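All the exercises in this workshop are built on plain-text protein records. An example says more than a description, so a record of this kind follows:
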Amino acid sequence: MKITIITSYGTRGDVQPYLALALRLKEEGHEPTLVAGLEYASFIRERRIDYAPMRINVRDILASKACAALFNGVGKEKRDAIRAWGKALAAHLPDILDDIWAASQQADCLIYPPTLYPIWHIADKLKIPAIISFAVPAVSVTGAFPAPLLTASDAGKFLNRWSHRVAIMILTLGFRSSVKAWCRTTLQVEPPSLFKNYLSRNGTPIPVLYCYSQKLLPMPNDWNATTLASGYWFLQREEGWQPSPELEDFLSKGSPPVYIGFGSISSGDPETTNRLILSALRQSGERGIIAIGESGMTAQEGHEFVHYERYICHDWLFPRVKAVVHHGGSGTLAIGLRSGKPTVVCPFTAEQTFWGNRVHRLNAGPAPLAQVLQQGFTAEKLAEAIKTAVSDPVILQGAEDLGKVIRDEEGLEKAVAFINAQIDRGKSSRDS
């Protein structure tokens, strides 16, 4: 089967699990094509997976002032940033949809994120099965927990269910004028009505496949039978990858350090963040490895207790550290939990706070901190969280136990079995 997998317009952590899925599908005899942002072309092709471009460069958007304000602003600044972010994505949307349409022409099945809900129309036009897939339970209504994209606060079954409905409306009501125009001009189909249900086709729910561990968040009893949280999808390290000599030297010269990195998200004030991290490490008495990434931070010289790296292979490093401190993004979270090391979540979004709460509930880390550089996020609180993570025997054991479960989950195998079953189900319904 030719399967086109469309990734979200996100960071490497949003793309990497789907590359792992594509590789496993290829091993099973399928012909996958991975559609992703322009900056991921070589990353995908190096693994001998067919790549199709999506004309958006997420790195440029994440580096913008509007994006920094989106994650770090408050009040009017944040509202203005949301509008600017929406306009930027709306401007890219016709090109993105054109690219996905081109990449789908020979496909027998589409796998796509709910953030790109107009792909529903492509699958319907081509009369092929489709599966919604995401790293966060974003489109499955339940009373068991709140909608992670909106809130991390459990409000009881009734309000939890409403929060999911609101989240689905937000995901599927955006860019309607652009989607209508694109449906008319490119697909030559009638544009969708305002109340279009993008979670169903021909009266049947669209299958939904989530990429996270049921140990971290159990599947609720009120989800339908065509929804699965398979477990995480891990990409094997590239053959021949080696750490920098400076990193190996730092690791060899003292006790295991604490990893600190906030992914591709800019704090809006990278040097203030840098100073805060250094102060927290001094107060905690721990050595640290700081991942610079796309944060805008610069390496500070003269601190023997800290080492800076721009990019680090997480699955190589995390087993060698005492604890991992990060923003709670799904990709970093998965590898950190698999390593069996305590996790300190310093979130930028409600979704990341939600995951941090789940980690804490399983005794695999302290409670998530306040959002980075917001009121309440201080060097003193970060230092206390680090000290708790590396010394609390309950947390150390909880992290180790969770890591063992995740290492044994076989998420990719379950995901491929689910995909095969949905394709077979789609064949049966078309033949009947």
In short: The longest helix spans residues 75-103. The first strand starts at residue 2 and ends at 6.
